[in-house]
Amino acid sequence: MGVIEKRLHEHFASLDEDDVTMTGSGSRSEILPDSAPEVLEPPFARVDSVADNSPANLSGLKVGDQIRSFGYVNRQNHDNLRKVAECVMGNEGVRSSCAQRCPPY
Does residue 19 form part of some domain? Predict the structure, then answer.
């Protein structure tokens, strides 16, 4: 990582100001697609507990985490979390993620 960081600093230090489009204030005139802020869906649930050695625990889910989507389930269609339970039950014993196994709605 240190070598990569050093090379990146060298690269950007060597760029001429003519190579970068600047406005009069010294900031970039356009936002690059990969640096545009991502708009997140609002959460529809908050994690109250995580069972030890559960798939949720093993994937890093923590108490207090907010759920924005779960497979095909989101704020518009969660039906008081019934769709989350449906997605989980439909994948019980399956190693793939819910997003891969649950049908889109």
Answer: no
